[in-house]
Design brief:
CATH class of one domain: Alpha Beta
CATH architecture of one domain: 2-Layer Sandwich
Shape: globular
Strand content: 25-35%
Distance between the termini: 29 Å
Number of helices: 3
Strand order of the largest sheet: 2-3-4-1-5-8-7-6
Number of strands: 8
Mean pLDDT: 90
Largest sheet: 8 strands, mixed
Order of helices and strands: EHEEEHEHEEE
Length: about 140
């Protein structure tokens, strides 16, 4: 069945981490991923140098909560995600309407982020934090 949501590419993927240092031990020190601390968030380690995705990032749970809810604690009434994935879409408003029509609870809708991305986020049935986005900097 065709979808109203036109996915253009995977923006990024990564674990949502509770212990940044332990995860650096795995992803940077053991697997050798060239992650670097973000300038705005020093606990958010990311890279655009892993083939197959536009971005791989270890997103701290407190930062994901801040982005979704405006507070550093994940709400107790929602399962805490262990991973995130974002899909850039042709039309963010259409995607949001289609997700709501399918019964998904949107955590944020067409939220403008300081780095220029517009994002709608929700939890998958298994608790992955999913974003549909408009990311102008990656549309080259």
């Amino acid at each position: 069945m065709p979808s109203d949501i036109e996915v253009l590419f995977v923006v990024g993927f990564g674990p949502i981490v509770r212990d940044v240092e332990a995860n650096l031990g795995l992803f940077r020190d053991t697997l050798g991923l060239p992650v670097n601390a973000g300038s705005a968030e020093p606990d958010y380690f990311t890279t655009s140098k892993v083939e197959g995705v536009k971005n791989f990032g270890m997103w701290p749970l407190r930062s994901a909560a801040q982005s979704c809810f405006g507070q550093p604690e994940w709400p107790a009434d929602l399962p805490a995600p262990t991973a995130w994935i974002e899909f850039d879409v042709a039309d963010i408003e259409t995607a949001g309407r289609a997700l709501k029509a399918k019964g998904y609870r949107l955590l944020v809708e067409a939220q403008h982020e300081p780095w220029g991305q517009t994002v709608t986020r929700f939890l998958s049935p298994d608790g992955v934090l999913v974003g549909v986005t408009l990311t102008p900097s990656l549309r080259t």
